[in-house]
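Duplicate of #3305? Posting structure anyway:
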């Protein structure tokens, strides 16, 4: 039985993955790395900023000391803030889906994005009030495809609800990335993937793949969890 929904943020609610790519591309260019969009989508998109930077540097045989690392991450965050100033691009159907879903289920968010970026976007778009729990990059150690962020979101959701605990098998994760789908399945949760960042073939490990979010889908979401029990 479906009892809770956990959303990813970038690529599911906010269409800002291209902005994150551009911000990281320019940040690592300062340390002599040429980051292509293809490489970013193929290897680094599911990671939080710290893991993304670490992986890019490792792949280019570059070692940063603590100060260089912090400076690069600060540049990335600054670049993103400048790019997002033009507005928060909410994906079509996402706001309506969230509003309708919140009337039926408690909602949590598990993302590798920074908390300030998530909360700023949700506050500005009026969506923050629909989420009971927000788990951001600062809250966990292992990013997707590791299941830690999803399990932590469920743990905090159960603590807030103060009711008989919701089990992983009773949760549906909504994701857009290959790593996110893998993390949700590793957490023992069902997953619906949206083809906002990857083609449907790449997301076939999800229990269901859709082209976009639509409130009409809520009537059939419970069947996804039933098939995984």
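Output from current build:
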């Amino acid at each position: 039985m479906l009892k809770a929904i956990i959303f990813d943020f970038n690529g599911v609610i906010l269409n800002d993955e291209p902005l994150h790519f551009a911000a990281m591309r320019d940040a690592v260019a300062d340390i002599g790395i040429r980051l292509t969009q293809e490489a970013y989508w193929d290897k680094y998109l599911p990671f939080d900023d710290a893991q993304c930077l670490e992986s890019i540097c490792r792949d280019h045989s570059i070692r940063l000391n603590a100060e260089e690392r912090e400076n690069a991450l600060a540049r990335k965050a600054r670049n993103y803030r400048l790019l997002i100033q033009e507005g928060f691009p909410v994906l079509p159907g996402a706001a309506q889906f969230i509003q309708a879903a919140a009337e039926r289920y408690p909602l949590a968010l598990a993302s590798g994005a920074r908390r300030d970026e998530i909360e700023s976007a949700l506050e500005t778009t009026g969506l923050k009030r629909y989420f009971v729990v927000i788990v951001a990059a600062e809250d966990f150690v292992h990013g997707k495809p590791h299941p830690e962020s999803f399990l932590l979101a469920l743990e905090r959701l159960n603590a807030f609800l103060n009711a008989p605990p919701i089990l992983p098998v009773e949760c549906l994760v909504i994701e857009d990335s290959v790593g996110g789908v893998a993390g949700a399945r590793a957490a023992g949760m069902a997953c619906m993937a949206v083809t906002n960042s990857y083609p449907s073939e790449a997301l076939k490990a999800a229990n269901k793949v859709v082209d976009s979010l639509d409130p009409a889908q809520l009537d059939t979401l419970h069947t996804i969890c039933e098939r995984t029990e």
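Confirmed duplicate; merging threads. The chain has two domains: 4-15+88-228, 17-84. The beta strands are 4-7, 107-110, 133-135, 171-175, 190-194, 208-210.
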